[in-house]
Amino acid sequence: MNLLNFVKQYPDEASCRSKFKEYRDKEGVIYPHCGSKEHYWKKDRESYECKKCRRRQSLRANTVMHGSQLPFRYWFISIHLLTGTKKSFPASELQRQSGHKRYEPIWKMLHKLRGIMGRRDELYTLSGVIELDEGFFSTEIREEEKDKPLKRSRGSQKKSKVPVMAESEPVEGVKTKNGKPRKVGHHKMIVIDDLKSETITPVVEETVSGFSIIDCDDSTSSVKLKNIVEEHRPQVIPQNEIEKTLPWVHLSISNAKRMLLDIFHDIKSQYLQNYLNEFFYKFNRRYFGEFLFDRLMIAAVSYKNVFR
């Protein structure tokens, strides 16, 4: 959806509120107290009333907007900007464009949306042939580690460790239209505290189907992966061959780093996962076009206040 179409379709607060109710009615309203889905819409109260327990909940309740005082149109504009741009959109710019007085509510709103992007991708399990490698993203040093001597290389406190997994089926005889020897599918990036085998193995087990094949480098982090998948194919990969052996993982790491450097500064490690959620939510749905707005709206009415 381009900007002109968005403004035409959602010109004011009333149109956004009405559309949000339409999305919510379509997905269904569930009452957490009794589990019932039967309800009345109380127009005079602008709320739902359960037919069973008679409790009421507002239009925002139990959605990503739960507890938010920001106008519906702010949320719609944010969803449009996050899904309509190839890169990302900083909270400072959204605050400036909207004229809102405070930065923090805008920042929280964007991170809640990034959080539900991650929740949505958690529903999918990677399968087939999987590329696996670790990425190292520059982040601020945590408060509890600022007094410790600064480590070098992969163990540095300035580097957040991120296993990257990509569905990557080999294409025999020809390269894909991207010039890669493999056809790419879904990706996942998960921020972890360290690169120990005991840390990475359960993360991969939750993310990848047990009938998959994993291609990765021959590191101590991956020694236990053979116990959780059908086939584990570690290999010693020379530095100049790594982009050929694991092409999509390293292209994705490079693109994600470039996005973060271009738009954000001094990222805190505890929020890195949300930024990566946004990057791969859009990558995994790169062929959705204008329907990407609708998919995120559906996620917005389906999940309550996800903020990591």
Short characterization:
With 308 residues, the protein is α/β, with parallel strands linked by helices.
Uncertain runs: none
Average predicted confidence as pLDDT: 89
Sheet with the most strands?
A: 5 strands, mixed
Number of separate strands? 8
The gyration radius over C-alpha positions equals: 22 Å
Number of helices: 10
- Strand order across the largest sheet: 6-5-4-7-8
What gross morphology would you assign? globular
What's the helix-strand series?
HHEEEHHHEEEHEEHHHH
Task: Give the DSSP E fraction (strand runs of 2 or more residues).
Answer: 15-25%
Q: Pairing-aware structural class of the strands and helices?
A: alpha/beta
Task: Describe the model.
- With 308 residues, this protein is of the alpha/beta class.
- The chain has ten helices and eight strands.
- The protein has helices at 3-9, 13-27, 72-84, 91-98, 104-121, 197-207, 242-245, 247-263, 269-284, 291-302, and strands spanning 39-42, 47-50, 56-58, 129-138, 159-170, 182-189, 213-217, 231-235.
- The strands form two sheets. Strands 6-5-4-7-8 form a five-stranded mixed sheet, with helices on both faces. A three-stranded antiparallel sheet has the order 1-2-3, with no helix packed on it.
- The radius of gyration is 22 Å and the shape is globular.
- The model has no long low-confidence stretch (mean pLDDT 89).
